[in-house]
Specification:
- This protein is mainly β.
- It folds into three domains: 201 residues, Jelly Rolls (Sandwich), CATH 2.60.120; 101 residues, Immunoglobulin-like (Sandwich); 122 residues.
- Helices cover 7% and strands 51% of the residues.
- The chain is built from two helices and 30 strands.
- Strands 21, 23, 24, 26, 27, 28 and 29 form a seven-stranded mixed β-sheet that branches. A six-stranded antiparallel β-sheet has the order 3-2-5-10-7-8, with no helix packed on it. Strands 1, 4, 6, 9 and 11 form a five-stranded antiparallel β-sheet that branches.
- Strand 19 and strand 20 form a beta hairpin.
C-alpha cells in the first residue's frame, strides 16, 4: 500500500501539473503568456537565514497566541529531509502543549503568487496533530489539516489557491509566512517534526526579449521614386509592443523608421516598413538593425545587414526653345485655329519608348487637362487665367511623339492660344511655357 507520505507528495505534483496545463490551455494562441515557476522553501539550505523554526510550550490546548513565542531550534538537520530523524520538543502537560513554529521569508512578490503548497511530517503523542497557518489580517491561526498518528510520522499536506488570502492574509508586508504544528490533545508530552516545507507557485517575470528571424527586402535595385519593403519575423513569449528599423543612407547617416505588424500575431508575426525612395539620394542603403520591445519592456536588437541600391529612374528630359513663346490672340469662332508659334523640343533623358504629356505649366496660367481621346493627337488643355471668365482652350499638335522617343530626338510642337466666341481679348498675351514629357 502506498504510504501517506508518498500520497502527500503526489498531491502536490498533480496540483502543480494541473496549474501549468490551465495556463497553457487558456493562454491566447495556446502560448504561455506568463511563465509559471515554483520555489521550494525547506531547511536544506538557508535555515536560520531566510527560514527559521521555533519550539516552546503552548497554553490551554491551543497553538501559541502569537508568532513571536518560542526559542529557535538548536539544529536544523533533523527537519531538512524525510528520513525518520526528528526534532522533538518535550515538556507538555495537561494545560501545556508543545509546538513547533516555522517561519519562512518568501522572496516572491505576493501579487505574483498563485498557489502555496504546504507539507508537514511529524506527530504528537496523545491524540491528533494539527498544522496551522497564521492569518495576519485576523491575527489568529487557521487550521490547514490534522492527522491522528501518535507513534510514527503522519502527514498534513495540501495547497492554497485563494490568491486574495495569499496576498492579503497569509504573507505580510515583509514577506513572512508562518506555520505551526501542535498536538492539542489532553496532556501531550511532545511534538516531533521530521520534515517540513512550503512550495510557492508564482508567475515569473518575463525577462526574455523578442527574437528575430528571416529578414528580407522586396528588391535590391530600386529606381528612384519606387518603394522598397523591409520585413522581418519577430517572436516573443508575451507580445511584441513595438519595432523599428535602422537604415544607413549612402552618406553614412542612419535613421530609424517605425515598423508595423504586417501579418501574424504580436507573439509571432512579420513586421515591415515600406521605404519611399522618392526624392532620396541615389546610392547604396544598408538596413543595419532591427529593434523590438515587448509588453514587459524587454528590448532586443539584431544585426540585419541587407543592402539595396537606389538608382536613377528612366526619364524624359525635354528642352524647349525658345523659352518665351509669344502667343497671339485669335477669336476661335466655331473652329480651332491652326496657326501658332513653333516650339522645338529635344529629349535629353534616358527613357525610351512611348511617351505621354504629363504636365503643361505656365507662370501666369493654371492648367486643366481634359477631353483625352486615347492618344496624344487632338488632346486639349485649358488655361484658366486668374481673372473671372477667362477660360481658353489650347490645342496641341505634334509630329508622332508616341512612335518612340529616343534620347536626343527632336520634336516640333505647334501651340496656339485662343478664346471662345463670347470672349473678347484686345491685347496680346505673353507667357513662359514649360513642357514636360514622361514615359507612358
Amino acid at each position: 500500500m502506498m504510504s501517506e507520505r508518498a500520497i502527500g507528495r503526489i498531491k502536490l505534483i498533480v496540483g502543480l501539473v494541473t496549474f501549468l496545463l490551465i495556463l497553457l490551455l487558456f493562454s491566447p494562441h495556446g502560448v504561455l503568456v506568463a511563465q509559471a515557476a515554483v520555489s521550494e522553501y525547506n531547511y536544506t539550505t538557508g535555515a536560520g537565514t531566510n527560514k527559521w523554526a521555533y519550539e516552546s510550550i503552548g497554553v490551554n490546548d491551543n497553538p501559541p497566541p502569537d508568532i513571536t513565542s518560542g526559542t529557535e531550534f538548536t539544529s536544523y538537520t533533523e527537519i531538512d529531509s524525510s528520513n525518520d530523524v526528528r526534532y522533538t520538543t518535550t515538556g507538555g502537560s495537561a494545560t501545556n502543549n508543545p509546538f513547533h513554529r516555522f517561519e519562512f521569508d518568501i522572496s516572491e512578490d505576493p501579487a505574483t503568487i498563485t498557489e502555496i503548497g504546504y507539507y508537514w511530517e511529524g506527530y504528537g503523542d496523545i491524540s491528533s496533530s494539527t498544522l496551522y497557518i497564521w492569518n495576519f489580517t485576523a491575527s489568529d491561526w487557521e487550521s490547514l489539516g490534522t492527522h491522528a498518528e501518535t507513534t510514527t510520522d503522519g502527514i498534513v499536506s495540501g495547497s492554497i489557491t485563494d490568491t486574495t488570502k495569499i496576498q492579503q492574509d497569509y504573507i505580510n508586508a515583509s514577506g513572512y509566512l508562518e506555520l505551526c504544528a501542535v498536538d492539542i490533545g489532553n496532556k501531550p508530552t511532545l511534538i516531533s517534526t521530521d520534515y517540513v516545507y512550503v512550495n510557492v507557485t508564482y508567475t515569473a517575470p518575463d525577462t526574455t526579449p523578442p527574437s528575430f528571424h528571416s529578414p528580407g527586402l522586396s528588391g535590391t535595385e530600386i529606381p528612384q521614386g519606387d518603394p522598397v519593403e523591409l520585413w522581418i519575423n519577430i517572436t516573443d513569449d508575451t507580445e511584441v509592443a513595438a519595432s523599428n528599423f535602422t537604415v544607413m543612407y549612402p552618406n553614412g547617416t542612419s535613421y530609424n523608421f517605425t515598423a508595423s505588424l504586417k501579418n501574424g500575431t504580436t507573439q509571432s508575426g512579420y513586421w515591415n516598413y515600406t521605404f519611399d525612395t522618392t526624392g532620396q539620394p541615389l546610392g547604396t542603403y544598408n538596413w543595419t538593425f532591427a529593434h523590438a520591445n515587448d509588453t514587459a519592456n524587454n528590448w532586443n536588437s539584431t544585426s540585419v545587414e541587407l543592402k539595396f541600391n537606389v538608382t536613377e529612374a528612366a526619364y524624359v528630359a525635354i528642352t524647349v526653345s525658345p523659352a518665351d513663346v509669344d502667343f497671339g490672340i485669335v477669336n476661335l469662332g466655331s473652329t480651332n485655329q491652326t496657326t501658332g508659334d513653333a516650339i522645338n523640343a529635344t529629349n535629353t533623358g534616358t527613357a525610351t519608348g512611348d511617351m505621354q504629356i504629363k504636365a503643361f505649366n505656365t507662370t501666369d496660367w493654371t492648367l486643366t487637362y481634359a477631353n483625352a481621346t486615347g492618344g496624344l493627337s487632338g488632346e486639349q488643355f485649358f488655361l484658366n487665367h486668374n481673372e473671372t471668365g477667362w477660360w481658353e482652350p489650347i490645342n496641341l499638335t505634334y509630329s508622332s511623339l508616341a512612335s518612340g522617343v529616343l534620347a536626343g530626338d527632336s520634336r516640333t510642337f505647334d501651340l496656339r492660344i485662343g478664346v471662345s466666341p463670347d470672349t473678347t481679348i484686345t491685347t496680346e498675351q505673353t507667357t513662359n511655357v514649360t513642357i514636360r514629357i514622361v514615359a507612358v
